[in-house]
Design brief:
7-stranded parallel sheet, 19 helices, 9-stranded mixed sheet, alpha/beta, 3 domains, Rossmann fold, 31% helix
Length: 549
Amino acid sequence: MALRKAGALVLGSRRAAAEPLLLLRWVQGPAGGGGQPPENVVRIPRALQLRLAGKPPRRGRGVPVVPARAGQLLLRSRRPQLSQPRCLTVGRWERPLLVSAGWKHRRSCGDYFQLERSHSQAPALQPSLADRGDDSFQALGLEPALVSALQALSISQPTVVQRRSIPALLRGGNALCAAETGSGKTLAYLLPLFQKLLARPSLGPSWPPSPRSLVLLPSRELAEQVRTVAASLGRPLGLRVREIGGGRGMASVKNQLRSDPDADLLVATPGALCKALRKRMVKLEKLSCLVLDEADTLLDVTFLDLVEEVLMQAPIAHSPKEVAGQWDTKTQLVIVGATFPDGLGQLLSKFTDLGRFLTLTSKNLHHLLPHVQQKFIRIKGSDKVSELLQLIKNPGPSSGAILVFCNSASTVNWLGYILDDHKIKHLRLQGQMPAAMRAGIFTTFQKGERNVLICTDLASRGLDTSHVELIVNYDFPSTLQDYLHRVGRVGRVGSKVPGTVVSFVTYRWDVDLVRKIETAARRRTSLPGMKSAIKEPLPETDLTQADKQ
């Protein structure tokens, strides 16, 4: 018998235990055929063989573990060998070694990793080489009156999304404006809208009122915020802004419309607006601009039918020439958001020509914010409360506001009772609250009268939270879109500090999303599955039926 080097180790020899491991294969006879191996044989994987021999693994057989280097890190892990330096980027076809790879095992509780800051300020304030030039609102084509109104609000320089959107929207075409959260999208559509209103004076009051522009928003809190910004901008220009929201009865909506029937801009939620349209309290015949803000929420199943009803009553334009017409003016349609749902193109193709729909996107769309520190903690459900209390009571060097996100209204209420027991002053905000109770809660939080707000994803869309410094995902979000919107509550344009996000990872389905986030961070790519353009038109058969209706 003969012994040759291969992939098995024969145990039982004291000499073999003392010497370096030998990789052997049992062979019977010089020809090496037919023999039976001994029973005490342990087979060693090829990767382990190379590791024991001190050799690196072959290319294409797995990515070697990159040891932590001195200097700045892109991803910091509890296990230093899984940390990733900022100077290293995992290739597109490489399979990265993830910290969260084994997080579905119960013994992984206590593990964590965090994405470090790689930028000092928001990407929305960092124009690319193509966008650099005359860094002013005048260069974008805005009138001096609008520029003066902005200066009165201490706004002197446009953001990246404003540089790209304002000139395009001034030309009058239908557009899709897609940019990361907190990048200044509200002013990106309000400024060209106001300039068009200034160019065409109002024809006087009428009943039912027919506003000249409309901004549709998914929540009363967001509608109140946009109305406040629009009113402060339009007041010195002589433009009137009116808001209607649901939850207080149609008598309240009617009184709001009668108090100022000559409004230039109407800010509304879908439910209240559709009720007013059905009761003939308002008309949309003279709309020059219709904005659907936070489109991913507006086109959810909750609001989809209501939004379609509004689009059917507005004379949507098919080309920029119809918007610029002097007599039979059509409505310019602007879709705004950070993420977009499936089926957006199918809906819009019923009312306009998708071939002429302009898409305006930012470079950092659907990317993880590089200036926000994001920490992921694998934790048991029973330990989440104690971890949250520690974060609230010991916020660190900063003393800014804290947002705590939950996935359900019941969790918001239950968590509120626990904070009450610990004498922690806070506010709660969730969609099942009555309108009278919800009114003013977010305004109180914005003013700083309370520094802790427990909420659902109702507060994750569009609201201005520039004073928030810490986000706690008590419940990990159910989608990557929700995660992006939650993270976007910190590090916004106008924030004094970049902010931090801490996410509790509890369930197995949470780990699936965390793996996608970690992979995108290591590769420096956008999160998977996000849509930023309108590609799918409605089938021809459906178009024909829609025309007949």
